[in-house]
Design brief:
83 residues, mainly beta, four-stranded antiparallel sheet, 4 strands, 18% strand, elongated
């Protein structure tokens, strides 16, 4: 999150799961901020996409999107892959 951040949509397994784009704007940079959680996924492989919505908060100076971490609970290292 930060002063030049935009908005994102989250997709899980091809389905849009956010009602509206998530605003990543903050007047100061914030790290390790939870912006989305899901507790409805069944055990197994899933695909998560974070898509820049091309929108921004009126106070933001840009539409930049960055991700500093994903936390996957219940997966072992050999089950988790990044493509």
């Amino acid at each position: 999150m930060g002063p030049n951040r935009g908005k994102v949509n989250i997709y899980i397994d091809g389905q849009l799961v956010t009602d509206s784009p998530i605003d990543l704007y903050s007047s100061k940079y914030k790290y390790r901020s939870t912006i989305f959680e899901s507790d409805i996924l069944a055990l197994g492989e899933h695909t998560i996409r974070v898509v820049n919505a091309g929108e921004k908060n009126a106070q933001s100076s840009g539409t930049y999107v960055s991700i500093d971490a994903f936390l996957v609970v219940g997966a072992s290292d050999d089950e988790f892959k990044i493509e």
